[in-house]
Amino acid sequence: MAARVLNVNVGVLGHIDSGKTALARALSTTGSTAAFDRAPQSRARGITLDLGFSCLRTALPPQLGPGPGELQLTLVDCPGHASLIRTIIGGAQIIDLMMLVIDVTKGMQTQSAECLVIGQIACQKMVVVLNKIDLLPEGKRQSAIEKMTKKMQKTLENTKFSGCPIVAVAAKPGGPEAPESENPLGVSELIEVLKSQAYLPSRDPSGHFLMAVDHCFSIKGQGTVMTGTILSGSVSLGDNVEIPALKVTKRVKSMQMFHTPVTYAMQGDRVGVCVTQFDPKLLERGLICTPDSLHTIHAAIISLKKIQYFRGALQTKAKFHITVGHETVMGRVMFFSPAPANFNEEIQENVFDFEKDYLYQEEYLSKDSGSSEENKENDQAGEVQLPKQQWALLEFEKPVTCPKLCLVIGSKLDTDIHANTCRLAFHGVLLQGMEDKNYTETFLPKLKVYKQKHKEGQVERVMDDYSVIGRSLFKKETNIQIFVGLKVKLSTGEDGIIDGGFGQSGKFKIRIPDGLKPDTKILLTAASKKKSKGGKGDMTKEDESSKNDSAQPVTISLTFKRYVFDTQKKMIQS
């Protein structure tokens, strides 16, 4: 029986030129087809453009179970160049353990921070690698390493990686041009730390097969090979797999894991799958899956959290780069929350309830957001109450193909690359995709998101004990007929009902079923007398003072809600 091989995917992330590829090379024993900047564009530009993969095999450490076996650490070398953040996000979704590579002479840089954010969203464990220690003068090397270690510990103390191991190395002493005879420093210690951090990732061979392909090439006479990491399910020789982007299904002819032929592979494995011939240029990266198991969607509802390092508000109607599964497209957002009475209600995870009412928000609610009009009713003593969960409707500029419940990240990738700011804005889970192109007509009316509307006017005069005339609530051209029957409240406490228009200037009649209070009548009679008295010659001092004594005018409040996607635009009062 072959000794078992446990595969753990280790992401190598960090700022450009922190020495990630050199570190992956120093650690690796087996390079895969995509490893070490083999792509012609990468070699020409001298930077990693795509995910490079290679592996390191070592004896199984004791914490991973008894018996003989090997631990295979698959190293995913993610590009550090800012414009390639889409690729990094794609890479982070297949990583069990992350190495954050820091240039010891520079410390944390913008992209190191973004990589840390992606790690927090998509990864469980991290090791920090302080690289390029050969550039520190020998006499001061130890103290410089200690200083940077303390700095990193401080940076990480409020993240889920607080207290993670920090290892100092020189992956390629003397830099890229130095002779190969120069031995790396600290790499064997790093391997021991990686072994100690390795864990049994939860792997499940059941469910639909889904694989993230990051490399595609053809072999003459054999077929086309797609290499990637299996995100869910399993695959065997002879299976049919669908390539949704090309709308074709192909049969699996052969499979390899790091140049070793295999007949079966499952979630978490890095594998090359050879299928019947197609043009590899058509699929540089993407997803392959069990036929008909993915959906192509035009819009989605997601649950989300704002990324704390993102500066500025997340505004409804704003556009973001949305990474869904392994695709990044432009999308417009609309944020909404539970109704204020339900802000503290426990929300069932990964499920969206279409029966409930939701409150439209002008922006994602956070400690630093201005309290929106809709949320004012819930805002006592100036303290903004925040809901336990918030959601967004995403509308994509072009359809995306993805699995259900996949990770979603929203970013502002058009922000200046050199600006020292985090471009990742929010992350969440896709709860409901909309496959129908006409989703605005077929699907959105089911989504009960409402806006709270509030209008104020004034009582102009009393007609009799049970009715008054109001003004300033509607514009002259408003069709008052649609408001007939709606309830209003007077500032003096009476409840009223809009009875109809009065004249042509936007005035209207209000019926007061329980009648006006005596005090209100006195107030309104005094106010209308004053109006008729005004304009008769000059005011005496006495009039002046009585004017100051007179109470404020009686105001009329009309409150109702309107569902954003209701085609009839009905006004609803509780």
Structural summary, described in words:
With 574 residues, the chain is an alpha+beta fold. It has four domains: 4-197, Rossmann fold; 210-289, Beta Barrel (Elongation Factor Tu (Ef-tu), domain 3), CATH 2.40.30.10; 295-366 and 387-447, Elongation Factor Tu (Ef-tu), domain 3 (Beta Barrel); 451-526 and 551-572, Beta Barrel (Thrombin, subunit H). It has nine helices and 29 strands. Strands 17, 18, 19, 20, 21, 22, 23, 24, 25, 26, 27, 28 and 29 form a 13-stranded mixed sheet that branches. A seven-stranded mixed sheet has the order 2-3-4-1-5-6-7, sandwiched between helices. Strands 8, 9, 11, 12, 13, 15 and 16 form a seven-stranded antiparallel sheet that branches. Strand 11 and strand 12 (248-257) form a beta hairpin. It is elongated, with a radius of gyration of 32 Å. Mean pLDDT is 83; it is low at 30-50, 80-84, 377-381 and 537-550. InterPro entries: eEFSec_C, eEFSec_III, EF-Tu_GTPase, EFTu-like_2, P-loop_NTPase, T_Tr_GTP-bd_dom, Transl_B-barrel_sf. It holds the Pfam family euk_SelB_III. It catalyses: GTP + H2O = GDP + phosphate + H(+). One of its GO terms (cellular component) is nucleus. Residues 527-551 are annotated as: Disordered.
